[in-house]
Design goal:
- It is a single-pass type I membrane protein.
- The protein is α+β, with helices and mostly antiparallel strands and 756 residues long.
- It has five domains: 1-120, Alpha-Beta Horseshoe (Leucine-rich repeat, LRR (right-handed beta-alpha superhelix)), CATH 3.80.10; 144-326, Galactose-binding lectin (Jelly Rolls), CATH 2.60.120.430; 337-378; 385-484, 2-Layer Sandwich (Phosphorylase Kinase, domain 1); 491-721, Transferase(Phosphotransferase) domain 1 (Transferase(Phosphotransferase), domain 1, Orthogonal Bundle).
- The chain has 15 helices and 39 strands.
- A six-stranded parallel beta sheet has the order 1-2-4-6-7-8, with no helix packed on it. A six-stranded mixed beta sheet has the order 10-11-9-23-17-20. It has a six-stranded antiparallel beta sheet with strand order 12-13-16-21-18-19, with no helix packed on it.
Length: 756
């Protein structure tokens, strides 16, 4: 191990003859040049740390041969090229953060256990992959309070947010693009070491009971922050050593602290500064400037102090809490006229005036609407243009001529789909880009709202597992959406389309699709600055690119979640068979409705069967019922698609089935979050065996009568609600190819389900 050498740059040393070497640590040694291909010949290598150097060029493909590497850090170098696919798909710790890679990898911000934060130069990537972590929306935060490693709590008049993530070896974790942390380093003697420290000595209920710890590097970020000067307060307490006469009292922790790239404390020793163990200390830094929208606090272990007291792995930076407050007057909320006068006018007077004004306004509006309607001036185009005034578009606007040229005047030969809201055509732009043009049906009045909603939602959301909206076009009373073209259609088409259009989806591919959908939903629910509930997750709305990576589409029914409400009460919308019971029956909408739909999609992908089928004189089939029957009989493996034969990992597929059943729990509170689902599917969290409720009627969601009604809707009422037709089945069968001779009957007025 060699680290933290100060001096001139040096070339990469020759290691090719050290065949039996297991650990290579050359961290912060000013090593320049490229990584040699010969590293791949070190097949016994277990740990490789080349972080904080000046390495350039691409990552050699030969390193893949060193298949026993459990931890690899190439962080903080100048590496370029595309990130190798074998690293992106790795299940082991890989840290490539803070480099200059190119390309647009299909990953999420929390692509655990691979840390890619601030690793790319391309402006087309997610915000978390870009340099300086720019805000993907408008900066709005001017303060920050984090209880590092602890739960949400009140302290000193402020509410400190919880920071309970257990991830640490090579991870980036963000909280709603408000703050996040990037952690690097692993203790080779204990790969499962805890990255949260808990005090055994402190009894008072304050911030110093817990702390986040990292063996090497820990960076906290304030995200989407307003420009200006801030006061940063860092809270510390040494809670892992003792002050008695035991071995644990000999520990010594030293680390450096930088803020906005400037070193503010070197060889910081918490115990010495606080004059004892378990004592809190605060270090304050004033006039910290945020020029862009990101504040960075970096704690770094420079190889000093003890490393094995009270046990191996106790070293590196440790922090208890962070507070950031502005040195400027935060912008005040603009008050409406009513709010400005509310404190000056008696309530009774306001009510009387309000009622009188409301009656007058309603009368005037109704009269105006009647006049405009009779004169034929209440047209569709004006309504849409008015709607679009309130939408902050982040997409380009196409002209009708551009789309006409791209689709050869909307030639029928380029028609690739037809859905509830119109027809979809394949096109090629002048620059050679393949596109899918969704032409909204002029007969659909409800399509206006869907059109505006879809533009507003997708233009504000960017993620590798969400379909990319290129732009829109308004031409007279004709409306168009322009999407990226998806070469492999939808998951529905791949599994249930005509025989000649079926794709060979082996289990690793299906599992990758499941993980991708889960990551897309986790982004919508938890990572995006907008908290979005999709409301129509189904296999027809999951598209596949040329590499069979999944992308969620069709945001026409999506709703924004409200943080201060437990649920939204709204008219049910979506597709029966995928709708959660509490939503279908009561209109109670939370992100757990999407979790339920995802569970049904999982069952379809695993089984290769549609979630519902019905024949004229048959009771029909519903996949969740079937899964519950198989579970009660102890035959869950019979759920697996026979086309997979035996080419799968039994343990992994059984875990995936259990995840699906947990997602489809009739009690919404018992369904996991989508981030938890991602962890379970990727094998980073334990999947508990699903246990059937022996007395379903005791569910706090449904009584027996209501359950029968729900089951009737699922089986007999297969279709969709709140759409321009009775079926949203092809609401985005729309933007991908289809075979008009597939024999699939949709019947757009009343679905004719085929048996499997």
């Amino acid at each position: 191990m060699i680290s933290d050498l100060h001096g001139p740059s040096m070339p990469f040393p020759t290691l090719r003859y050290m065949k039996d070497i297991q650990i290579v640590i050359m961290r912060n040694c000013s090593i320049s040049g490229t990584i040699p291909n010969s590293l791949g010949e070190l097949t016994n290598l277990r740990k490789l740390d080349l972080s904080f150097n000046k390495l350039t060029g691409e990552i050699p493909q030969t390193i893949e041969r060193a298949s026993h590497i459990s931890f690899m850090s190439l962080s903080n170098n100048i590496l370029t090229g595309e990130v190798p696919i074998w690293i992106l798909q790795s299940k082991r710790y890989r840290d490539l953060s803070y480099n200059n890679f190119t390309g647009s990898p299909s990953v999420s911000c929390q692509h655990l256990p691979v840390n890619l934060v601030s690793s790319h130069t391309s402006s087309e990537n997610l915000w978390c992959l870009k340099k300086d972590l720019p805000c993907s929306s408008k900066p709005k935060y001017h303060s920050l309070f984090i209880n590092c490693g602890g739960r949400k709590m009140k302290f000193d008049g402020h509410t400190y947010e919880e920071d309970l993530s257990s991830f640490g070896p090579s991870d980036f974790v963000s909280s709603a693009q408000k703050w996040g942390y990037s952690s690097t380093g692993v203790d080779m003697s204990n790969l499962d070491a805890n990255y949260i420290a808990t005090s055994l000595n402190i009894t008072r209920p304050d911030l110093y009971q817990t702390a986040r710890i990292a063996p090497l590097s820990l960076k906290y970020y304030g995200l989407c922050m307003l420009k200006g000067n801030y006061k940063v307060r860092l809270y510390f307490s040494e809670i892992m050593f003792t002050d008695d006469q035991t071995f644990s009292s000999l520990g010594k922790r030293l680390f450096d602290i930088s803020i906005q790239g400037n070193l503010v404390l070197k060889d910081f020793n918490i115990m010495e500064e606080a004059r004892g163990v378990g004592k809190g200390i605060v270090r304050e830094f004033d006039n910290v400037t945020v020029i862009g929208s990101t504040l960075e606090i970096h704690l770094y272990w420079a190889g000093k102090g003890t490393t094995a007291i009270p046990h191996t792995g106790v070293y590196g930076p440790l922090i208890s809490a962070i507070s950031v407050t502005p040195n400027f007057e935060p912008p005040k909320k603009n008050l409406s006229y009513v709010e400005r006068v509310r404190s000056h006018v008696p309530i009774g007077t306001m009510v009387g005036i309000g009622c009188a004004i409301a009656v007058i306004i309603i009368a005037i509006v109704l009269l105006a609407l009647v006049i405009l309607w009779k004169r034929g001036l209440l047209g569709r185009q004006k309504t849409l243009e008015d709607d679009l005034k309130g939408v902050e578009l982040q997409t380009r606007k196409f002209t009708y001529t551009q789309l006409k040229d791209a689709t050869a005047n909307f030639d029928q030969a380029n028609k690739i789909g037809e859905g509830g809201f119109g027809t979809v055509y394949k096109g090629i732009l002048a620059n050679g880009t393949l596109i899918a043009v969704k032409q909204l049906s002029s007969k659909s009045k409800q399509g206006n709202r869907e059109f505006v909603n879809e533009i507003g939602m997708i233009s504000a959301l960017q993620h590798p597992h969400l379909v990319n909206l290129y732009g829109c076009c308004i031409d007279g009373n004709q409306l168009y959406l322009v999407y990226e073209y998806m070469e492999n259609n939808s998951v529905s088409h791949a599994l249930f389309g005509a025989e000649e259009s079926h794709l060979k989806l082996d289990w690793p591919t299906r599992h990758n699709i499941c993980v991708g959908i889960a990551k897309g939903l986790a982004y919508l629910h938890e990572e995006s600055s907008l908290k979005v509930i999709h409301r129509d997750i189904k296999v027809t709305n999951v598209l596949l690119d040329r590499h069979l990576n999944p992308k969620i589409s069709d945001f026409g029914l999506a709703k924004l979640a409200e943080e201060d409400k437990t649920h939204i009460s709204t008219r049910a919308a979506g597709t029966f068979g995928y709708m959660a019971p509490e939503y279908a029956l009561r209109g109670h909408l939370t992100d757990k409705a999407d979790v339920y739909s995802f569970g049904i999609v999982l069952l379809e992908i695993i089984s290769g069967k549609k979630n519902s089928t019905q024949q004229t004189n048959a009771e029909g089939f519903y996949i969740l019922d079937w899964a519950h029957v198989l579970k009660s009989e102890g035959n869950l493996m019979n759920l697996v698609d026979p086309k997979l034969s035996s080419e799968f990992n039994n343990e992994e597929i059984m875990a995936t089935i259990n995840v699906a059943l947990h997602c489809c729990n009739s009690t919404s509170k018992l369904r996991p979050t989508m981030s938890a689902v991602v962890s379970m599917l990727e094998g980073k969290a334990v999947v508990e065996e699903f246990v059937l409720d022996p007395n379903p009627s005791t569910s706090d969601e449904m009584d027996p009568t209501v359950k029968k009604l729900f089951q009737f809707c699922l089986r007999g009422g297969a279709g969709s609600v709140e759409g321009p037709s009775n079926d949203s089945f092809a609401a985005l069968d729309d933007i991908h190819p289809f075979n008009p001779h597939s024999g699939r009957q949709d019947d757009r007025k009343g679905r004719k389900w085929h048996s499997f």
